[in-house]
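Q: what does this look like with adenosine-5'-diphosphate bound?
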Amino acid sequence: MASVAVMDVIKTYGALEVLHGIDLAVRDGEFLVLVGPSGCGKSTLLRMIAGLEDITGGDIQIGSNIVTDLPPKDRDIAMVFQNYALYPHMRVRDNMAFALKLARRSRSEIEDAVNRAAGILDLSHLLDRYPRELSGGQRQRVAMGRAIVRDPAVFLFDEPLSNLDAKLRVAMRAEIKALHQRLKTTTIYVTHDQIEAMTMADRIVVMRDGVIEQVGTPLELYDRPANLFVASFIGSPA
Ligand code: ADP
Ligand code: MG
């Protein structure tokens, strides 16, 4: 587990500045939801925390380490994407083991980690299947399995449920929350869905156009929105 600090982070693409100096402190063990309209910079911010984008300005700290100049593999994070990004030619077991193999863990260590994650995610009976033989919800669980086998200090989720149908989305929300309650891993979860934010977050960060409009618990945002944008976005009567 670890806290995450985003300190005056700026990102530009060419002449376009898309993050205008973001400051954010994520607490150890917290489930933080980043919410905001499409294009406001949520994925960019998450990718900077992951180390998948060059940083234009500012610093990122994970635990006690400034990681600004470290590659993703040295940041003790695991990221789950919207499109799962499973390897189609690998069985579930090998999809989940892949990062551990790259990290040259021992075979028994890998087996233990995969079996443990499979147990947590109810995937034990699916370990020998290929991704094409799974439902959307099962694929999403494998994507989460690939993240938890690594036992990272921080989980980063980028709209992990947006490809699922509405009913499955509700079920998976509950699964992800249960997983968090069990593992207590610091989590930063990106969505553009207010309901998802309100039902899942310990605290919500509302973004608009590359700035943070407000940070607070779901109740605080609902009761005391900082401005009209937050009020209408969260859906409270303004
Ligand atoms: P969100 O995840 O909130 O929908 P993004 O972080 O994907 O938003 O994008 C924020 C802004 O940055 C958008 O205006 C988007 O067009 C722009 N952007 C994202 N990635 C790139 C890129 N690789 N090159 C140029 N502009 C980009
Ligand atoms: Mg995005």
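The two ends are 38 Å apart (CA to CA). Residues 113 and 149 are 5 Å apart (CA to CA).
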